[in-house]
Design a protein that fits this description.
ribosome biogenesis, binds guanosine-5'-diphosphate, repeat, Rossmann fold, about 425 residues, GTP-binding, 3 domains, P-loop_NTPase
């Protein structure tokens, strides 16, 4: 399970520019991978081989002008709750404003590790000016950086990564870890309670290694797995918190510590932007997915209701549509066992390893049937392929000119893999490598 770094600060200090630099993404690029990339406020970063999550708290839209301060306050509080480290960003070209002070006052009360980042320090004069920020009195140092040209970010990341807590993996490592996620009121606690309530004796609390996750071992009907739950699943939003921000933030830790996530949707609402944001988190973490359409008891049914509903959900999830969808009622416990069975199948799919010889035999044929179209007059040849020994399915294709293989062709390869082997519910990564 990784560390979570949150970027906080008032608008316009450069939070999203810094986020893009850390995660290597650009806002302008949408749908650049085979997965969905609708959520551009959450991403993965890597520094010296240490992977961690980054959240741009400012990326969550604010409602209106008068609740401005209030919104920032909530976002900072949530960041304090959920993140392991906080980057507090200020603007050296602008100096310290009242809003900066307000954010600083909240952060001062937190025990989390905070790094004071003096952004827009684009030249040596501005780097010198950043010393002014020592007066804020937060953190051990001031880190002058320029998110635009990248200077100073290395020193900042060295410090952040050096302070990371080593997070130990829990016991029972060979058991599947399954989590129920979804926005508020979809029925997460009802589902967990219904499963646990089937027989109180089938569950035992497993000592979790982190203060905020509860892991429960579930043994029944031939199933043996760990149900991952975090404090976040149980906590309800207090006031009218920005709901998207709330449910996305609260889901991160749960998703990171699971192998398979059951994404619960509310049948009476269909699939909404927030659900897709959570799906995006799951895909970015390369975890398995089962879609559970809950409260199905509330839907009036005609002949094709279920089929139509399912089709609509798959359309919205495109291009990642090879996912089990189960219609449930947590209230009447209808098909909850089916959800567990699907989750365990997805877990097995995620562990699947295809031998290099079998992979080459099948995929060479697929490539002969449909060759990578030559671009700019270049003849493209894929020579061989192998599944990498990573936890989540990742395939490397060795090719003469990897940079010329288009995303659409990668999607063809992915579909061929899915057609020939069972990877339902599992995001697949495809890399083109030079040979
Ligand atoms: P946010 O509202 O905190 O997310 O701020 P943005 O990332 O949207 O940045 C606000 C403005 O500051 C944009 O015009 C950025 O181009 C600019 N900006 C961000 N970082 C830097 C920097 O390091 N140097 C300079 N000169 N401008 C920056
Ligand atoms: P959570 O916020 O995701 O944990 O959602 P809860 O489990 O607290 O459920 C929110 C509300 O939806 C509660 O009033 C539940 O009784 C209700 N609910 C949950 N599952 C179902 C269901 O399958 N059918 C119906 N009709 N109501 C449900």
């Amino acid at each position: 399970m990784g560390n979570i770094v949150a970027i906080v600060g008032r608008p316009n200090v450069g939070k999203s520019t810094l986020f893009n630099r850390l995660t290597g993404t650009r806002k302008a690029i949408v749908n650049e991978t085979s997965g969905v990339t609708r959520d551009r406020n959450y991403g993965k970063a890597d520094w010296n081989g240490q992977e961690f999550s980054v959240i741009d708290t400012g990326g969550y839209s604010m409602n209106s002008e008068d609740v401005f301060d209030e919104e920032i306050r909530k976002q900072v509080m949530l960041a304090i709750d959920e993140a392991d480290a906080i980057l507090f960003v200020l603007d050296v070209q602008h100096g310290i404003t009242d809003l900066d002070e307000a954010v600083a006052n909240i952060l001062r009360r937190s025990k989390k590790k905070i790094y004071l980042v003096a952004n827009k320090a684009d030249n040596s004069e501005l780097i010198y000016a950043a010393n002014e920020f020592y007066s804020v009195g937060i953190g051990d140092a001031v880190y002058p950086i320029s998110s635009v040209n990248g200077s100073g970010t290395g020193d900042l990341l060295d410090a952040v990564v050096a302070d990371f807590e080593v997070k130990l993996e829990e016991d029972n490592e060979d058991l599947p870890r399954i989590a129920f996620v979804g926005r508020p009121n979809v029925g997460k606690s009802s589902t967990v309670n219904a499963l646990v309530g089937i027989d109180r004796n089938i569950v035992t609390d497993v000592a979790g290694t982190t203060r905020d996750s509860i892991h429960t071992r579930f043994q029944k009907f031939g199933h043996d797995f760990i149900m991952v739950d975090t404090a976040g699943v149980r906590k309800k939003p207090k006031v009218t918190e920005n709901l998207e921000f709330y449910s996305v933030m609260r889901s991160i830790r749960t998703i990171e510590s699971a192998d398979v996530c059951v994404l619960i949707l509310d049948a009476t609402r269909g699939i909404e932007a927030q659900d897709l944001s959570i799906l995006d988190l799951i895909i970015k973490n390369r975890k398995g997915v089962v879609i559970m359409i809950n409260k199905w008891d509330l839907i009036e049914k005609e002949t094709n209701t279920m089929k139509d509903f399912e089709q609509e959900i798959r359309n919205r999830m495109a291009p990642f549509t090879d996912v089990p969808i189960v219609f449930t009622s947590a209230l009447s416990k209808q098909r909850l066992i089916k959800v567990l069975e699907s989750a365990i199948e997805v877990y097995e799919n995620r562990m699947r390893k295809i031998s290099t010889s079998e992979l080459n035999k099948v995929m060479q044929k697929a490539i002969e049937d449909f060759r990578p179209p030559s671009t700019k007059g270049k003849f493209l040849k894929i020579k061989y392929m192998t599944q990498l020994p990573t936890l989540a399915p990742t395939f490397a294709f060795y090719c003469n000119l990897p940079q010329y293989i288009k995303d659409s062709y990668k999607r063809y390869l992915e579909n061929q893999i899915r057609k020939n082997w069972e990877f339902t519910g599992v995001p697949i990564q495809i890399f083109m490598r030079k040979k």
